[in-house]
Amino acid sequence: MQTQIKLAIGCDLAAYDFKMAIIRELKNRGYTLTDVGCNSSMEGDYPDIAKAVAELVSSKKVDRGILMCGTGQGMAIAANKCKGIRAALCYDIFGAIMCREHNDANILVTGAWMVSMDRALDIIEAFLFAKYSGGRHDMRIKKMMELEEK
Q1: CATH of the domain at 139
Q2: Peptide bond preceding 38 in cis form (omega within 30 of 0)
Q3: Fewer CB within a 10 Å sphere, N or C end of the chain?
Q4: What is the bridge-based pairing of β-strands 87-89 and 32-35?
Q5: Catalytic residue annotation
Q6: Is residue 1 part of a domain?
Q7: How far apart are CA 140 and CA 143, in angstroms?
Q8: Hey, is 149 helix, strand or coil?
Q9: Distance from CA of residue 66 to its chain's centroid?
Q10: Is residue 145 included in any domain, yes or no?
Q11: In the Cβ-directed half-sphere of 55, how many Cα atoms lie within 13 Å?
């Protein structure tokens, strides 16, 4: 358990129940979480939630973010519009590890309709424990982040 990591978590209405179950389990595992919403399964727009998590991550108020919606697609697109964010959409453990090791992803995105609760928790743990490899990936990340300026 890596409880010193501070996380921001958010979802849209399609993933509300899924997010609440994930939060319960992550808190049981000792993680510090900031839940930015949504707050019901009746309303919650993914661009607003993605922005809220992205702002916490880019300002370094939290170490990493977790976003979820039905498929994760909308959240990933919205989060990646925010400066300093490298949000990765993952449905499996290998993708979660690789997005950290090669891309230094700072937000994990997944879909409540796409993965089971147990699978999501495994993906989250893989994302949180994987480390950025650096080295040859540094220049690629620099080039990627320069795209925000164009």
Answers
A1: 3.40.1400.10
A2: yes
A3: C
A4: unpaired
A5: 69, 102
A6: no
A7: 5
A8: helix
A9: 3
A10: yes
A11: 7
DSSP readout, 88-134?
Answer: EE-SSHHHHHHHHHHH---EEEEETTTS-HHHHHHHHHHHHH-----
Report whether 36 contacts 67 (CB < 8 A). Answer: no
Mean pLDDT of 97-115: 98
Distance CA 47, CA 80 (A): 10
Share of the chain above pLDDT 90, in %: 92
As a residue count, the chain comes to: 150
Q: 89 — phi, psi (to 5°)?
A: -85, 120
Q: Provide the whole-model pTM.
A: 0.95
pLDDT exceeds 80 at position 1: no
Strand partners, 11: 68
**Looking at residue 150, what is its pLDDT?**
78
Residue type at 41 in one-letter notation: S
CB 115, CB 70: distance < 8 Å? no
Q: What is the residue range of 101's domain?
A: 6-149
Q: Is residue 46 part of a domain?
A: yes
Q: Which residue has the higher pLDDT, 131 or 148?
A: 131
